[in-house]
Write a structure and sequence with these properties.
The protein is an alpha+beta fold. Helix content is about 30%, strand content about 20%.
């Protein structure tokens, strides 16, 4: 229940069962004739509706046409049915879903959602349900449809609860290995930068959006354009099965998200009564834990489902569990206390200027994710966004807190104005590559994290390779004034920085003497002479990648190591080099391969060489494929550029690693792969007349 579960738990980004006592009563009924889906040459859906709810209906339908299989994974997990499909591993997700107890919060606070947004959700759910009804043979598990707006609301809460690290805490308590100082299993990734007229060569403002997520599966990106006559006009990306665009731009503004790493989960050890069962002390009184049993449905074999009973509890602290040593721990987090997560993204999608966008941020419901923002009015912003508790001074929340009173229990949150942010710096640019949040702009305008409470718990204090390289490129003459093409060059750069904590700490690898190891002298020489560039023709990069993959595996490293100096014994370098030499002898005939021979972009019948490198701005984090080759599993999972000038949106370009559809029989299953390998983009527009004139298909969803 560590790293893998921390990722898999997020599978319910959209849907989650709310165990409603009564059938949901819809306030509107969508007429599909009021919804139009336009497909462009790349298969990207441009969805038009009279109302926002109409457009939401079309989004659900279009997404299901392209990736209904993945959408169902989300439904299945969210409805507590993952165990029926995936057995024991799925049951772990169902247990997590039950434990954090967000369903009661939805019943309590659903009224906080605006009527406008609830109608939007109703439209979305009707679209998903209509597609499921029309394609019953594609449904993977009986009972997952229909869905309703409470399901969608709970899905956002579930997802944010998982992404901030709650599964690690719960898993450790259940396993009896709880230690809050253990290395985080949360993923790292994403680039984003924004420029205004102080930095651009033509007085424009520009935005680069570049999340690094898995390139396939429920954390990959689905691209769409949503438009209504009620003011919705947003183009961008979302996880498959999500009801709003998470990152992208409308005609007025745009934003990116990058992953941030903050301490947003607290664990309290309760003081239990020495004799009375399930009684804990709080503010001088003994209170009884509320029992919350759950029956998990676990698939043993085809057609055989075993019900397994597990016990969880609830206290004034929140979700509570008993560990194997008999202690009771409560897990408290903001992710299961805010029901307006989805509405905040919806409000961001509809914002028409900086003030409206910032007002959406004041909803303070999206528990995490940095925000990098640009707009037509020449504003740029970096925000280390989170829902941060107002914790008590003098209490070390980075460890288990022994608690029996409200002197340690928090109940309020910081305002968005309290968070680390950089707005319209003099230099005219902001950026983030999962690096230090106080270092979001030119060094002369850096802030100091010590000016904020230490209990924010940043795990992003260093400068990774991507940050070092970005800052390095910003000092080059070509960056004195940034053009649109220069912005793209920076994003697609695949060179390592000249120096940095990580780079400096592995210098010994580049000074192994080939004469002392003649059996692998060619390999060692290729690495020693490598120019630190990750282009697909580069043999030094190929040699390094094979060695690097083994080295990181041996040392148990993850991508967080790129932010700091690492300690690797010289003997480990030699072990990794010998392993790499054997791989080269076995799979490449003893010849040093170019990077593109080692690193492949693969789907269906397409298999092409790929540039990029782990923790380069053009990022690829690889997994073993076959025959000594690798393919990215986390990479430039979506690329999006936007430019405004003279108060107007003048340019948009996007790129997906594969294409708009995950269906192998679709022409859009692989049609963007060569673009991706060549680091080229496709033009996009919000202009309806242009979209209609170039449309490949236009239809209503039925």
């Amino acid at each position: 229940m560590k790293k893998m579960f921390a990722c898999l738990a997020v599978l319910a980004w959209l849907f989650t069962s709310v165990s409603a006592k009564d059938k949901y009563e819809y306030s509107i009924t969508i007429n599909p004739e009021d919804v139009t889906i336009v497909r462009d040459k790349w298969g990207v859906p441009h969805i038009y509706g009279k109302t926002d709810a109409d457009a939401a209906y079309g989004l659900a339908w279009a997404n299901a046409e392209d990736d209904f299989y993945t959408m169902q994974e989300l439904v299945i997990t969210g409805k507590g049915l993952a165990g029926k499909l995936l057995g024991k591993e799925g049951a772990k997700r169902d247990f997590f879903s039950h434990t954090i107890g967000y369903r009661d919060r939805i019943d309590q606070d659903f009224h906080l959602l605006s009527d406008e947004y609830v109608r939007y959700l109703e439209g979305y759910c009707q679209g998903a349900n209509a597609y499921a009804e029309a394609h019953k043979k594609e449904i993977r598990v009986k009972g997952i449809f229909p869905i309703n707006p409470k399901d969608v609301t709970g899905g956002f809460m579930f997802a944010l609860s998982a992404l901030i690290g709650t599964p690690d805490a719960i898993g450790s308590i259940v396993d009896g290995t709880f230690d809050k100082d253990q290395p985080s299993s949360l993923p790292y990734g994403s680039n984003a930068f924004a420029f205004n007229s102080n930095k651009t060569d033509d007085g424009s403002s520009m935005l680069c959006i570049n999340p690094h997520q898995p390139v396939t599966g429920p954390f990959s990106w689905y691209e769409a354009h949503i438009n209504s006559e009620e003011g919705l006009n947003i183009h961008g990306a979302m996880f498959p099965g999500s009801s709003s665009v998470f990152l992208g731009n409308n005609e007025n503004l745009g934003w990116a998200h990058t992953f941030n790493h903050l301490d947003l989960v607290d664990v309290f050890e309760l003081e239990m009564h020495p004799k009375k069962k399930r009684m804990y002390k709080y503010n001088g009184e003994w209170k009884q834990l509320e029992k919350r049993p759950v029956w998990l449905k676990v698939k043993l074999a085809k057609g055989i489902i075993l019900p397994v009973k597990k016990m969880t509890y609830w206290s004034v602290y929140g979700a509570t569990l008993k560990s194997p040593n008999g202690n009771y721990y409560a897990v408290k987090l903001p992710g299961n206390e805010r029901v307006r997560v989805g509405e905040q993204w919806y409000r961001m999608d509809k914002a028409s200027n900086y003030d409206e966008f910032y007002e959406a941020l004041r909803m303070e419901s999206i528990s995490m994710f940095n925000i990098i923002y640009s707009d037509k009015d020449d504003n740029v912003l970096y925000l280390n966004n989170c829902v941060m508790p107002k914790r008590h001074e003098g209490v070390d929340y980075s460890r288990v807190v022994k608690s029996n009173s409200d002197k340690t229990l928090w109940s309020e949150f910081h305002d968005v104005e309290d968070l680390v942010q950089t707005y319209n710096p003099d230099c005219g640019w902001v950026f983030n590559t999962n690096n230090n949040p106080a270092h979001a702009t030119a060094k002369s305008e850096w802030q100091n994290l010590e000016d904020w409470p230490a209990y924010y718990g940043w795990d992003d204090k260093g400068e990774n390779n991507r940050a070092e390289r970005f800052l390095e490129m910003m000092k080059e003459p070509e960056s004195d004034k940034i053009s649109y093409e220069r912005m793209k060059e920076i994003k697609f750069d695949y060179e390592f920085p000249a120096c940095g904590a990580y780079q400096n700490s592995i210098e010994n690898l580049f000074h192994v003497n080939p004469n002392e190891h003649p059996e692998m002298s060619a390999l060692i020489t290729a690495i020693n002479e490598w120019d630190k560039r990750g282009n697909k023709e580069n043999k030094g990069a190929g040699a390094y990648l094979i060695t690097f993959q083994k080295l990181f595996s041996m040392m148990g490293f993850a991508d967080g190591e790129f932010k700091k100096a690492v300690c690797i014994p010289d003997t480990s370098y030699l072990t990794a080099l010998r392993w790499a030499q054997n791989e080269i002898d076995t799979h490449y005939g003893g010849e040093i391969p170019a990077l593109g021979e080692v690193q492949r972009h693969v789907r269906g019948d397409v298999n092409i060489p790929l540039s990029g490198f782990p923790d380069a701005l053009a990022a690829n984090y690889n997994e073993e494929w076959k025959d000594g080759r690798y393919k990215p599993w986390v990479a430039d999972s979506y690329v999006h550029f936007a430019q405004w000038k003279d108060g107007k949106l003048v340019r948009m370009e996007t790129l997906h690693p594969f294409g708009a559809s995950t269906r192998p029989d679709s022409p859009h299953y692989t049609d963007q792969m060569q673009l991706y390998a060549d680091q080229k983009t496709k033009p996009m527009t919000l202009d309806k007349a242009k979209i209609m004139s170039e449309a490949k298909s236009v239809y209503h969803p039925h």
